[in-house]
Amino acid sequence: MIAAILVMALGAVILGAALGFAAVKFRVEGDPLVEKIDAILPQTQCGQCSYPGCKPYAQAIAKGEADINQCPPGGEEGIRKLADLLGREVKELSAEHGIEKPKSVAFIDEQVCIGCTLCIQACPVDAIVGAAKQMHTIVADQCTGCELCVPPCPVNCISMEPLAEDVESWKWKYPVFTLTPASKASA
Amino acid sequence: MEVSGIHAHPGQQGICMKTLRRLFDFHGGIKPDYRKESSTGDPITVVSASTSLVIPLHQSIGGPPRPIVCAGDRVLKGQRIGDADGNVSSAVHASTSGTVTAVEMRLMPHTSGLSALCVIIEPDGRDEWMPLQPFDFRAATPTQTRDYLRDAGVVGLGGAVFPSHLKLSPGKQGKLDTLVINGAECEPFITCDDVLMRERAEGIIKGTALMREMLAAATALIGIEDNKPEAIAAMNQALQQSGIAHIEVVVVPTRYPAGGAKQLIRVLTGIEVPHGKRSTDYGVQCFNVGTAYAIHEAIDLGKPLISRIVTVAGNVGQARNFEVPFGMSMQNLADRCNPRPDTDRLIMGGPMMGVLMPAADVPVVKATNCVLVGSPKLFPPPPPEMPCIRCGECAKVCPADLQPFELYWFSRAKIFGKAQEYNLFDCIECGCCAYVCPSHIPLVDYYRFAKSEIWAREKEKTSADEARERYEFRLLREEREKQEKAAKLAAKTAAGREKAAAAIADAEKPAETPEQAAKKALISAALERARAEKASVVPENTGNLTSAQQAEISAIEARRAEIREMAKPHLPPDD
Amino acid sequence: MISYLFILLGAVLVNNVVLVRILGLCPFMGVSKKLETALGMGAATTFVLTLGCGTSYVIDTWLLIPNKLEYLRTLSFIVTIAAIVQLTELVIQKTSPMLHQVLGIYLPLITTNCAVLGIPLLNIGLTHNLVQSLLFGFGSAVGFTLALVLFAGIRERMEGADIPVHFRGTAIAMITAGLMSLAFMGFAGLDKYK
After folding, report:
1. Which of B71, B286, B365, B389 could form a disulfide with B180 if both were Cys (CB 3.0 to 4.6 A apart)?
2. Nearest by Cα to B328 from B43, B565, B52
3. Of B142, B165, B36, nearest to B91 (Cα)?
4. What is the pLDDT along chain B (575 residues), one digit of tens a residue?
């Protein structure tokens, strides 16, 4: 009995010491995972995920505080990539954080704009050009479509315009067509 | 495996060659029914613009040209109407004289059925050329020559419409071994290069000589498939008459797609351009015969590219070739060939690689080598798609040495990363795999789908990276502004405290005498004078700077650089 | 010498730990979705299992048997293995954080991987010496990795396949595992040709 206790105690001490040493030796600093997650996120900085930006959301995912289905601009594709990276199950987009919309850009009605600069302050990627009491306009190429400039506008002159498909951005469609049952087709 | 070209047996075809050239074989390929005879009976008919022309501004790979005319302008034939946007772009010209009636969105000759900006010209019927000025490229620098060709709108006329000026630099070594001129024209029905070589061989030879000189190429090989004996004879004759050395007409065996750039290079030189490399890395560059002719016209005659040879074939009474000004409606062209009543579609290009047009009244553009008139009888709808049985026929015929069944598997399942691992982007969409597929799978459609999805994703990724950079810079800037404000505030409060302390001290002091006050006024006046003087002496910050200012400026610049550095994304390189 | 080879070969193929002994199914189903992950899991398990077999042999021969404490085998083996797994986890977290994240819960769960406890116990049952124990442990782990990698390859491929709705996911994976197990039965008797 005493021998058994002694043996187990000895084992525990040795293993404990070894693990303690390893923990000091192999300490990890920083989290490279955050960068990888951040690289997948769409960088709209829209805050729909309930975090203040894409990076904080990435940090939250890495820590396990947030789920991977809270990013509407990233959509289904983004969730799939995150699931792939983290080895988790693919999930539906969480409805409380919004729905996936076609990519759009903000548009300022320049007749109505009063030059209050509120939207400039709201834009997370500096895609609005203008100055106090001067007309503002959107740099469409750099607009991420986050909609953060829409609510601050006092005269409601900002609208979201869905990006139209042109010859350059047109994509070949998936060549599989769903078959309709014969009875439906004849009806 | 090498095969000997027919010209290795001069007796057979009656073609006499000075040397025997060893030809090579490319992997795969098919022998479809060529059906080229019907359209080569008549000579090229030059069509002049009668109805209004719709000239799309974006007719080449690269940035869309900017319009430089507006409604109401009168334009002459050959006048530039669209300026190249940057270097990777090509100018567009009026193909006849007339009046610009509008610059507006019109339906493009593109499967999507979408519109793009076009210049609409109402011809005045006079076909009046602008003054033409040949270009002396020997007196010009290579850059000037390339700019000239860019502004002359010369693009690859084989179908890819890649701006030719970008291909006309000799690469890293400064010279090339071989210039390949592509007259293979392997796709069924199409004969535009064939008739061009028959009728305008001299121009092609001249253009080839020009390109050979520009590229400092040792030899130029004009590859022509052996099913075009008339074209071969015409080219050889023109070559002998011109007396130009270092150009050779080489007959290659007929097999689809021998006219693919990589395939023809392989056949003529034995060089297989590997994945991710350019042919110029191996001392070879390839141009179409039509492009050679266009370069001859642009340099020797000063004519920009405003028309091309177009084959009209398929479901028509009389198939033939036309020289068509760009912007003419395909319907107009097809109507000249008595289309049969059951015609239901127009295809731009051939039956293998062509794309279906969304409507009949789309304009002829630089990429239009053929208007193929289709009917349900000529091109019956494909039988239903069956599952892939992995028979491997597609891999046997793939001229790019790919595994089409694997590409299909991954494209269909939308596993794009894997499709790329199997080198999806080396696919030239020649259609051989779909042609031989016993399950009638539209393989090329899957590859096109996967390619455009991958491109869209890459675009999204770049814009996301850009947005991240801008966002991080903004955060940094806000932080800096906050600090600066805090510092300013701190300085202000410190100054205020000092002032207050001074005021208290003043109040404690006895009231100053008038004498003291006068002295003080004198001193302050002097100070004011000195300050004014100093201000007038300070040089303008644009002019001669003192070393102190220089140092200050460079310090500011350094700070800016530092901020830029900090704003850059701190991502490790993707492995 | 030849008997050592047979121990190794037998452990890898004939008595494959997953497909024949049906041990360690949890990570076999859990981390076989991607080839890279499967390889990482295989490497981690190989490390743990080989080391575990060595240490458990040492503990058993020089600590437990002399003190007549055989009844402490399971307990002491588990404690040792747990420590080794912890060590492995620390090392992986340091060297390959991606793998650490991807392996996730399955990494600490190597502790409870029945193969990892089963093989040292089998070693004692088969009265292997130290070298034999190490070889047997290593061979079994290689067998585990082999099965895992093959399975992951099949599953990656199946991602693009048109599987009937009711069979999608784990169902088809189970069927595949069963078929693989049947295939591995073909190796039975390979070690009889001595």
Report:
1. B286
2. B52
3. B165
4. 444 444 434 334 444 445 568 899 999 999 999 999 888 888 999 998 888 999 999 999 888 999 999 999 999 999 999 999 888 999 999 999 999 999 999 999 999 889 999 999 999 988 899 999 999 988 988 889 999 999 999 999 988 899 999 988 777 777 889 999 999 999 999 999 999 999 999 999 999 999 999 998 999 999 999 999 999 999 999 999 998 989 999 999 999 999 999 999 999 999 999 988 888 888 999 999 999 999 999 999 999 999 999 999 999 999 999 999 999 999 999 999 999 999 999 999 999 999 999 999 999 999 999 999 999 999 988 888 888 999 999 999 999 999 999 999 999 988 898 899 999 999 999 999 999 999 999 999 999 999 999 999 999 899 889 998 999 899 899 999 999 999 999 998 888 888 888 877 776 665 556 666 777 777 777 777 777 766 665 444 555 666 777 777 788 878 777 776 665 555 444 44
Parse chain B into domains and list their residue ranges.
6-128+136-313, 386-505
Residue to test with chain C: of B390, B403, B418, most C Cβ within 10 A = B418
In a domain, C11, yes or no: no
Distance (Å, rounded) from C-alpha B306 to C-alpha B96? Answer: 8
What residues have CB less than 8 Å from C26, skipping those under 6 apart?
C106, C109, C112, C113
Residue C13 near residue C187 (C-beta atoms within 8 A): yes
A174 and chain B: CB distance < 8 Å anywhere? yes
Tell me the C-alpha distance between B113 and B108, whole Å.
Answer: 7
How many domains does one find in chain C?
1
Contact partners of C by the rule of 3+ C-beta pairs under 8 A?
A, B
C31 inside domain: yes
Enclosing domain of residue C132: 27-188
Q: Is B409 within 8 Å of C159 when comparing Cβ atoms?
A: no
The DSSP letter of residue B154 is -
Domains along the sequence of chain A with CATH: 32-97 (1.10.15.40), 104-162 (3.30.70.20)
Q: Cβ contacts (< 8 Å) between B356 and chain A: which residues?
A: none
Pick the CATH number of B6-128+136-313 from 3.30.70.2860, 3.40.50.11540, 3.40.190.10, 3.50.50.60: 3.40.50.11540
What number of other Cβ atoms are within 10 A of residue B572's Cβ? Answer: 9
Q: Is the pTM of this model over 0.95?
A: no
Residue type, B18: K
Q: Does A92 touch chain B (CB under 8 A)?
A: no
Measured distance CA(B345)–CA(B113) in Å, rounded: 14
A170 to B452: CB separation less than 8 angstroms, yes or no: yes
Interface membership of C159 toward B (CB under 8 Å): yes
Cβ-nearest to C97 among A3, A8, A32: A32
Q: Contacts of residue B459 in chain A, CB cutoff 8 Å?
A: 169
Name every chain A residue with its beta carbon within 8 A of the beta carbon of C59: 11
Question: Any chain A CB within 8 A of the CB of C31?
Answer: yes
Residue of A nearest to B61 (CA): A168
